[in-house]
Amino acid sequence: MEKSEIPAVRNNNERGTSDNFQPLFSTGVGINEATIKQISQAKHEPAWMLGLRLKAYQIYLQKPLPSYGPNLSNIDLDHIKYFQRATDHVARKWDEVPATIKQTFERLGVPEAERQYLAGSAAQYESEAVYRNLKHDLEAQGIIFMDTDTALQNHSELVRQYFGKLVSADDNKFAALNTAVWSGGTFLYVPKNVHADVPIQSYFRINAGRTGQFERTLIIVDEGGSVNYVEGCTAPNYSEDSLHAAVVEVFVKKGGYCRYTTIQNWSTNVYSLETKRAQAQAHSTMEWVDGNLGSKVTMKYPSIYLAGEGSSGSMLSIAAAGENMHQDTGAKMIHLAPQTRSSIVSKSICHDGGRADYRGLIKYASTAAQAQAHVECDTILMDNKSSSDTFPVNEIATSDGTIEHEARVSKVSEEQLYYLQSRGIDEATATQLIVMGFLEPFTKQLPMEYAVELNRLIQFQMEGSIG
Q1: In principle, which of 101, 123, 215, 445 could form an S-S bond with 131, CB 3.0–4.6 Å?
Q2: Packed helices 427-438 and 448-461: angle between N→C axes, nearest 10 degrees
Q3: 112: buried, middle or exposed (CB in 10 Å: 19+, 13-18, 0-12)?
């Protein structure tokens, strides 16, 4: 997660400005069992959560770094600040947010976004939430929207029912680390037949260098319910590397619908290593809309377990990789039931020597009769220094399913450039128009203001690399 969100980060100066803000409490640098106990004690957690954390820490110590994808050997996990508390309470009114933090999120557009576009919004600064709000009409319908720390206090049994059920601590090294030191994140519950189609949004900010952010997000959409959730994150530029290792679990019950949109614009010192997984029950729909516009390294492959008959899942993603950036992204669609459908559309742009790889999995279990899947991977290379590879895996245990896969790597079309320039458009503007057209399948899924801001972010990132 991801990273400026939309509407946010109007220019690079806003992303690159750190705040002179001192945390109220920090566990300092490094991690051990005492650190984990400090985190749990500071949050007044139930004993079962501390037990889960300590068990996950032991798994983390034993798990190796991933053996595939980008090089992670330079991450110094022993010199990261694992927990920092920015404020002593979560504000329900914007005026209650500490002034320095409020100025940061005002620059990122949080108050404006809440007023104009959102049914609810929340803001996380460093390790914990500093602000949350949900419009009264949705709250009256039984929707629960809060940071996961507060949900653990107020809805402990509901959290315990779902926490770690899709992403267990032994899934991978960074899922184990997240389970051991998680803090913040979003908890969202939509009751049966309740619809929250106006976006509910969360913002995440890493302010200090050499910092880890480990939010844990749980979304449960009950039978017949629907929700449109948007999250975005940002971090200033530092010479010291920071780590973002989130875990997201989404449960969509029978006939439900969830769209989860992420726009990430991390600075180029951040390692973004996330585990995102959803489960879709009978005749439900789960959609990931995923934008990756920053970070030093991103490894993220949101997955959907199509567990119910007639369920459907989709992933629509873009990745833009510039100098010293490696975007290793993709999706996994696990078909477990009959007549399930999935679609993956991945768009990548590489410039100034950047690298963007697609890594995906389509799996048909023996129970997935008449399953259907479509995969489309398109990449534009803006120069000869940039590179891109596709690593698709298909595991098929049925005889009556269908899979479509297509992948293309190309450069900006000389014919298109010539045509636009013959109409009096300069080369740089013509190239931007071609790139924006290439990304249209992604941007048209966003509200207009969101799409406009996304285009601005991409244009800024590519400034100087075209024309």
Answers
A1: 123
A2: 130
A3: middle
Residue 197 to residue 213: CA distance in whole angstroms:
28
Decide if pLDDT at 259 tops 60.
yes
The pLDDT score that the predictor gives to residue 72 is: 93
Nearest to 379 by CA among 404, 403, 409: 409
Instruction: Please compute the mean of the pLDDT values over residues 245-249 and round it to a whole number.
Output: 95
DSSP state, 108?
T
Beta-ladder partners of 81: 29, 211
Distance CA 64, CA 50 (A): 23
287 φ/ψ angles, rounded to the nearest 5 degrees = -125, 130
More confidently predicted of 304 and 29:
304
**Percentage with pLDDT > 70 across the chain:** 70
Is residue 45 within 8 Å of residue 110, measured between CB atoms? no
Expressed in angstroms, the distance from the first to the final Cα of the chain is 31
Confidence grade of residue 207 (pLDDT, cut at 50, 70, 90): low
Q: What is the pTM of this model?
A: 0.83
User: Are 401 and 364 within 8 A, CB to CB?
Assistant: yes
pLDDT at residue number 266:
77
Which value, to the nearest 10 degrees, does the dihedral of the CA atoms of residues 89, 92, 93, 97 take? 30
Helix (H, G, I), strand (E, B) or coil at 317: strand
**Which whole number is the average pLDDT over 304-332?**
94
Percent residues over pLDDT 90 in the chain: 46
323 is written with which tokens?
A: 């100098």
- 307: tokens are 């567990």
Residue owning tokens 């501390």: 50
Q: Is 373 helix (H, G, I), strand (E, B) or coil?
A: strand
- Nearest-5° Cα angle at 9, 12 to 244: 90
The answer to whether 280 and 307 have CB atoms below 8 angstroms apart is yes
Amino acid at residue number 262: T
Cβ atoms of 258 and 290 closer than 8 Å? no
